[in-house]
Amino acid sequence: xxxxxxxxxxxxxxxxVSDNDDISTLNCRESDSTDPLGxxxxxxxxxxxxxxxxxxxxxxxxYKGKIVAxxxxxxxxxxxxxxxxxxxxxxxxARYPALLIGQMGVDxxxxxxxxxxxxxxxCIGLARKFNERIACACITLQTTEDKASYYQxxxxxxxxxxxxxxxxxxxxxx
Length: 174
Fold this sequence. Notes:
Blueprint (H helix, E strand, L loop, with lengths): L11 E5 L22 H14 L4 E7 L2 E14 L15 E12 L8 H19 L4 E7 L3 H5 L4 E5 L4 E7 L2
Parallel strand pairs: 4-5
Antiparallel strand pairs: 1-2, 2-3, 3-4, 5-7, 6-7
């Protein structure tokens, strides 16, 4: 059966990875088999270690019972350099509490079907819910410059270029 061009987000099951979920079968490499953001490397070598040591929480996305994507979330904080001047609180001199989207990967067979959109919307919703009960001023992530435009459609702002060639991005939760 052929996959639809766009998967209805209501057909996706997004939840924290359980003991019954095997995310290691995902292939999140680029079409040319590269891994510029280290997503596949993280999935294969670090994901379970980080999760077991409470360094990240792993989430999976299922479509019709099959795991088609994953992402990782962690509590974090960002410095003033990563907060746009228009969003800075005048009295704030230290760090802002943030939700970090650490890694996100969609299996290559399911790309281009709006699964990444559903993940972004889910993460934004979670951060806003967190902010109702605990301080979570923003969402932050790092990506390559060529992928930054993807996140800009969700109003993420590029705040600075990093030494590794990536960019830091920011989205306010208010």
